[in-house]
Specification:
The chain is an alpha/beta fold. The chain is about 30% helix and about 20% strand. The strands form 2 sheets. The protein has an 8-stranded mixed sheet with strand order 1-4-7-5-8-9-10-11, with helices on both faces. Strands 2-3-6 form a 3-stranded antiparallel sheet. Helix 5 links the parallel strand 9 and strand 10. The chain is globular, with a radius of gyration of 19 Å.
């Protein structure tokens, strides 16, 4: 009898903890006309592993932390995918769930794919930041603790947005995972082509290392030195430019891991990466 009572109590405690967290999904442009168009007419498709193609209807998915643990910090997450897909699971929802478990609001952006219309995904990031600020009180978010994060091409989206953002919608910090930074010789050609259509007049504008100013927020960068998809020099060059501008920056490089490990626990340095991430975020 005592054993059964103890099991019941444990179940209730566990249920109470999980039910204190919640998830909200919003259409990004609900009630508002979307600017630009990516011209995609095919239906949205999951090509496997929640890697989404043909996105034309962008969304925000908000993972709210337990109110008792809420730090007031929020992170807008831009998954990668070479501007051809959005790798929404291991570079999005898994990350957001981890943040919520640690008292941080994790917000996954399912952004429209550019299809060579370069303004499209950046409009979605700006709208996402607008909505986060508008709902900050409702979601128990502090308006001076809203950051942005991204992986690979999503890292480029996050970093390039940050470099050009208006003061009103400027992120308070930035976390990048194996990001595409340059649209010059070190670029990931697929990302550059999918965003710009090969228009060389845009290459400098979207080469983040050429757009750094002292207004760039504190930044944390993760990279693997054996990344053959996006040369790690992208990250090192950004770090150097941020340091020259006087921006607080920390780059953590791992000797192995390649590209695209995201929040998969098969990544050898998964545990230490999460520790470094939380340490950085809770200082913001």
């Amino acid at each position: 009898m005592k054993k059964n009572l103890w099991i019941t109590l444990l179940a209730l405690i566990g249920f109470g903890h999980s039910s204190a967290q919640s998830v909200t999904t919003l259409k990004l442009w609900e009630g508002t006309e979307m600017p630009d168009s990516n011209g995609i007419t095919e239906p949205e498709t999951d090509i496997g592993g929640k890697r989404l193609a043909n996105i034309t209807v962008p969304e925000l998915t908000i993972y709210h932390p337990n109110p008792e643990k809420n730090t007031g910090i929020a992170v807008l997450i831009c998954p990668g995918g070479g501007y051809a897909i959005v790798a929404s699971e291991h570079e999005g929802h898994m990350y957001a769930q981890f943040l919520a478990q640690n008292g941080i609001t994790g917000i996954v952006l399912k952004y429209r794919l550019p299809n060579k219309v370069h303004t499209v995904p950046f409009s979605d990031v700006a709208q996402a930041m607008t909505l986060i600020q508008a709902h900050a009180k409702e979601w128990s978010i502090k308006k001076n603790k809203i950051g942005i994060s991204g992986f690979s091409a999503g890292g480029h989206l996050a970093a390039a947005y940050t470099a050009h953002a208006s003061q009103k919608l400027h992120p308070d910090f930035c976390v990048l995972f194996y990001p595409v930074i340059s649209f010059g010789p070190l670029t990931h050609e697929g990302s550059r082509q999918n965003l710009t259509g090969g228009d060389s007049s845009l290459f400098d504008y979207y080469s983040v290392e050429k757009q750094v100013t002292k207004k760039f927020p504190p930044t944390l960068i993760f990279v693997s030195d054996d990344d053959t998809a996006v040369p790690p020099e992208n990250s090192y060059n950004l770090k150097n430019q941020l340091e020259q501008a006087g921006v607080p920056v920390k780059l953590i490089n791992y000797p192995t891991g390649g590209h695209g490990w995201g929040f998969n626990d098969s990544f050898e340095y998964h545990k230490s990466m999460k520790e470094e991430l939380i340490k950085f975020l809770k200082k913001q």
